[in-house]
């Protein structure tokens, strides 16, 4: 808790000091509101910056996707492995194009479209890429079955959440040295809100998603820093994460009133990031 103190000298009838009165009041809520306002102002500045670079980045992306399409036209002379790489490159380019739209959305404050999304499909895609591009001693575990959990979300935003969390987790583990048994893991479970709930969410069916790893974890100051910084920079020597990182995840998740993000950190076991999304409808196969 935080307190604000005010002191006043008590005078007698001859204006001589006879003592003083000190009054303390709880200003915890006031300070929290001030910190939230500061974060919002930084996010607004980030939105303005995002709108400025989105157009130029999109032009560069068009050229990249065009060359990949040209390679795809000559796919007959490529091996199956090379075709798979091209397909992944196209998917990643499309994700990047969607990210540009998110940057533009961030700059104008428009709510992004949402649909019923299979968490396994999104997490599997991200973890598959991390498995191919990062140290394979770090296990990438998706603790659910295909089609087991659907949520109402924007698939590209959810992809960015998992990608940023996964990248930060891998960098954290690499920062202290990779050991056999290191892991990053995503799990999910049903969560039902009935009546008054600590999350403040309206009644309904939700999915509680947990992302965890056994990296170095975060101290209280580090956690606060993640919540207030708009981006993370690489430290000297190449260690540490770079890019949007956790603050980007915090922008995406609370934007929809159907979900809430909760960040917890345990130094002994590594950070745990959990969030709750409204449950989506199971997609039915068309005959």
Automatic annotation (TrEMBL):
InterPro entries: HATPase_C_sf (IPR036890), HATPase_dom (IPR003594), His_kinase_dom (IPR005467), HisK_dim/P_dom (IPR003661), HisK_dim/P_sf (IPR036097), PAS-assoc_C (IPR000700). Keywords: ATP-binding, Kinase, Nucleotide-binding, Transferase, Two-component regulatory system. Residues 1-39 form the PAC domain. GO terms for molecular function: ATP binding; phosphorelay sensor kinase activity. Residues 52-246 form the Histidine kinase domain. The keyword Transferase applies. This is PAC domain-containing protein. It comes from marine sediment metagenome.
């Amino acid at each position: 808790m935080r307190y604000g103190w005010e002191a006043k000298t008590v005078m007698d009838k001859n204006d001589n000091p006879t003592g003083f009165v000190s009054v303390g009041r709880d200003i915890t809520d006031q300070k929290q509101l001030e910190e939230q306002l500061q974060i919002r102002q930084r996010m607004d500045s980030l939105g303005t910056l995002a709108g400025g670079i989105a157009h130029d980045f999109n032009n560069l992306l068009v050229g990249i996707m065009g060359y990949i399409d040209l390679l795809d036209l000559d796919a007959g002379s490529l091996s199956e492995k090379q075709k798979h790489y091209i397909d992944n490159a196209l998917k990643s380019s499309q994700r990047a194009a969607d990210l540009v739209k998110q940057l533009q959305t961030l700059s104008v404050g428009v709510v992004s479209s949402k649909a019923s999304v299979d968490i396994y499909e999104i997490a599997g895609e991200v973890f598959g890429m991390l498995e191919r591009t990062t140290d394979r001693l770090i296990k990438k575990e998706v603790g659910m079955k295909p089609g087991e959990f659907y949520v109402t979300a924007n698939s590209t935003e959810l992809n960015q959440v998992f990608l940023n969390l996964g990248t930060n987790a891998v960098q954290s583990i690499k920062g202290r040295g990779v050991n056999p048994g290191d892991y990053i893991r995503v799990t999910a479970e049903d969560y039902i809100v009935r009546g008054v709930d600590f999350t403040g969410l309206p009644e309904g069916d939700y999915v509680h998603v947990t992302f965890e790893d056994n990296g170095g974890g975060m101290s209280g100051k580090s956690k606060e820093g993640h919540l207030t910084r708009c981006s993370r920079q690489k430290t000297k020597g190449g260690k540490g994460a770079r890019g949007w990182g956790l603050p980007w995840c915090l922008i995406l998740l609370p934007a929809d009133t159907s979900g809430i993000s909760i960040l917890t950190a345990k130094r002994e076991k590594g950070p745990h990031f959990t969030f709750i999304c409204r449950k989506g409808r199971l997609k039915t196969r068309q005959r």
